[in-house]
Amino acid sequence: MRRRRMAGFLPFQMDKGNSKNPNSRICFLASLSAFFWFFLFYFHFVVLNNNNNNNNINTKNIIIDESTILHLHQLPKPTFESTPFHVPDENQLIEGNQKMGLPDLKQETPKKEEVFSFMRALRTSENKSDPCGGKYIYVHDLPSRFNEDMLKECKSLSLWTNMCKFTTNAGLGPPLEEENNIEGVFSETGWYATNQFAVDVIFNNRMKQYECLTSDSSIAAAIFVPFYAGFDIARYLWGYNISMRDAASIDLVDWLMKRPEWGIMNGRDHFLVGGRITWDFRRLSEEESDWGSKLLFLPAAKNMSMLVVESSPWNANDFAIPYPTYFHPAKDDDVFIWQDRMRNLERKWLFSFAGAPRPDNPKSIRGNLIEQCRRSKVGKLLECDFGESKCHSPSSIMQMFQSSLFCLQPQGDSYTRRSAFDSMLAGCIPVFFHPGSAYTQYTWHLPKNYTKYSVFIPEDDIRKRNVSIEERLRQISMEQVKIMREEVISLIPRLVYADPRSKLETLKDAFDVSVQAVIDKVTNLRKDIVENRVDENFIEENSWKYALLDEGQHEVGPHEWDPFFSKPKDGNGDSNDSSAESAKNSWKNEQRNHS
Ligand SMILES: *[C@@H]1O[C@H](CO)[C@@H](O)[C@H](O)[C@H]1NC(C)=O
Ligand SMILES: *[C@@H]1O[C@H](CO)[C@@H](O)[C@H](O)[C@H]1NC(C)=O
Ligand SMILES: *[C@@H]1O[C@H](CO)[C@@H](O)[C@H](O)[C@H]1NC(C)=O
Ligand SMILES: *[C@@H]1O[C@H](CO)[C@@H](O)[C@H](O)[C@H]1NC(C)=O
Ligand SMILES: *[C@@H]1O[C@H](CO)[C@@H](O)[C@H](O)[C@H]1NC(C)=O
Ligand SMILES: *[C@@H]1O[C@H](CO)[C@@H](O)[C@H](O)[C@H]1NC(C)=O
């Protein structure tokens, strides 16, 4: 982050302290002559020196008004650091001109108020009669090639799955049929065969229902870019060269950076959604064999916030949001009824697992977990194979989760799985084996204190110590299980995406929580800029630690999970073969669909 030259003052604070002004005649003349020289130097060093740069000449003709402030701040400011003279900058000149007088030169303290183009937006939250104050979202009107056109060509969106049926019903997919609901595992309404990569469309459609949309970007708390980033890259992940994979991303940032909105904060108030794992957008090199696009490495994308279903622990420009489940309530009651059902179910299995082994990954603990499920009388397994199996049937999966107290959620090819959200929706307490599977990911949506809603068994306990899951889970008292399950059930509203065609009355869904978090992030950044706060010790590689900090904390240090997140380059630690390496394998995940 760039350090600002001078302390910022809030414009509404600036009238204070200007009242006394002892203008003796001599002072006045001295000021006049000083100003004359300053002006001469200013003209010489700044205006003339830059006169082949049209942008800077504009700084002469400034009229203070909201619209030009926005314009002004898009332009590169002339830099005074190298000149040996103190030259009044444009804001001081404006003030002088407005008062039809001269800058008060005796007031040595350079308490210049910076006028930030986002001040108007920041101040909307002080307007008590505006329920949307501080919450406005401006949505870019992107050309249709960045979104709608992809839906028209839905057949090309995946090599194995015909995505056309999954983009119906505003992205929810086809309703789950009556005959699918064999054991009555779903409630009456709100259930769809939703694809795990459909968040691009669902989120975009949910945005259309957002109650504080604005067409005036100068009051926006954040700016949404409705690009279907996940759909875009899914078309080209397999069998296309890197220029095809990067084309839309480069086209998009070119388009965005030409908009006046970009200049407000260099894109740091922009956010977009890609309903896939971050590794699909983080190609490290220009090698054709390397995986994915380089969207998240583009300079413009480094300034934006991208919401993905799995974020990178080591990067600051992506944030994890829940995978979609099969449940998309249209009203509060749909949720309350479901929660009540999940409270009162009889759960005959202590633990269960739905998934496939990873025989080609020697570090995977899935084989061990599958063995334990098979061996235990209180364990249940739904094994996924290639082709048709019960593992791909939403009702079989949900039925098993609904009959289990605990649901095992080991890593797949990457840290996270959709299954974690399906199991919590079923009121089943998740058991995680790697902090990257949830705790460092969904910090906006899940409690920071993970022991409240989940069980953590480090992978090495399974891998190296062959720990018995059954024994470990039996140590948790039935009373404690009940408290944890209630916590899981209470989280359901914020983990599901409501039906984008209607609106929950009071409950906040996964979309609402995400948008609020983006707004908070941008608002805090703006306040930091105004108050001239810079975190000089910020190390992007520690992003996952910052995400775990409580409100008001800024410092990170050694963490008990460090071994889980030592970078691949270190060659040791559990993450050796995760990240980009596993992204290369994620096609298997997609082929197997639910594993
Ligand atoms: C405050 O909000 C109300 C309602 O949206 C609006 O009419 C009014 O102009 C706002 N006031 C200011 C100072 O922006
Ligand atoms: C990449 O592939 C596209 C079509 O698949 C082709 O038109 C283009 O020339 C290729 N670009 C490079 C640099 O190979
Ligand atoms: C990103 O933000 C930084 C800091 O505001 C700025 O210097 C840089 O030019 C921005 N990048 C782009 C591509 O706008
Ligand atoms: C986390 O939650 C558990 C269970 O509710 C509680 O015993 C523990 O004190 C909490 N830890 C912190 C740091 O709040
Ligand atoms: C793990 O423990 C179980 C029973 O406790 C045993 O049957 C199995 O052989 C052990 N596996 C390994 C790899 O040691
Ligand atoms: C990490 O992975 C590389 C290649 O993927 C391998 O050569 C190396 O042995 C691995 N290191 C450890 C400690 O597993």
Automatic annotation (TrEMBL):
Chief location of this protein within or outside the cell: Golgi
Glycosyltransferase among keywords: yes
A Pfam family that the UniProt record links to this protein: Exostosin_GT47
Transmembrane stretches, start-end: 26-48
Cellular compartments annotated: Golgi apparatus membrane
Gene Ontology MF terms: glycosyltransferase activity
Record membrane topology: Single-pass type II membrane protein
Name of the protein described by the UniProt record: Exostosin GT47 domain-containing protein
